[in-house]
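Task 17 of the worksheet. Students: predict the tertiary structure of the chain below and write it out as structure tokens. Keep your answer in the requested format; marks are given for formatting as well as content.
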Amino acid sequence: MLEGTAEDTATRVFADHRELLFSVVYNLLGSVADTEDVLQDTWLAWASRNGAEDAEEIENPRAYLVRIAVNTALARQALISRRRETYVGPWLPEPLVSHADAGESVERTEAVSMALLVVLETLTPLERAVFVLHEVFGYPHTEIAPILDRSPSAVRQLAHRAREHVHARRPRYQADPKVQRQVTERFLQAALGGDLESLLEMLAPDVTMWRDGGGLPGTMLRPVHGRDRVARVIVGTTKRHRPENLGIRYRTVNGDPSAVLFDDDAPFAVMVLDLAPEGDRIRGVYAVANPDKLARIEDE
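Model answer:
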């Protein structure tokens, strides 16, 4: 147990940095549950370090906490990889849902977009850590090096490979929030109405659809590619699995105006669209229907 002022100070410092630590680790793992576990381990290490009688004062608590959190997350990757090997169908990140009005000016960061997180899954753990710390949080290579126990030149090489890999699969682009909200509304109207012609008009020729059902009946076993196939899968899936008491709430999901579908008061699915840079065509459809990943969503 920490005592008196030392305990209070350690708790306050950790609380001051918790939001940053959550954001960094979530971007590394894509899972809220795993992120919370990592933060718990980080807190225990931090509390233990500050509770030691002979502990020296830490000059830069922020750097110290980030290093613990990042390395704890990297150590957890082996467990996560084994878990993914038995996962049925496409795996999507656990959506972060906020109640901000999509019509307002919402602070959006590509760091947590569903589309980018899917691309980050294709990086090695070290490449992903370097990309997230450098491209997302602005850490210079010289600060990343001690976090990962690598030389600055090794970090620069990791950063170069990661950046090329990511930008080849997802060029930098951020859709206008109002346009994305409008397209999402039109998309759901067409999908729920079984309007195949309208869906074909909205989808880009090279569109890809991911549906994470967590192994439930109707789970898509792999992503679907191409406008015609995606449109027909959407119409067929909606026809077979639409709840009787379907409700739609427009929310901000991972920074993007999106939709949360409810069956009565229970979340049924999260729908996130990724728009093509050249207009309002849809190049990515991300549907999270795994109940375990929707458990934290409330109907407010």
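Marker's comment: Residues 151 and 299 are 48 Å apart (CA to CA). Confidence is low (pLDDT under 50) at residues 102-110.
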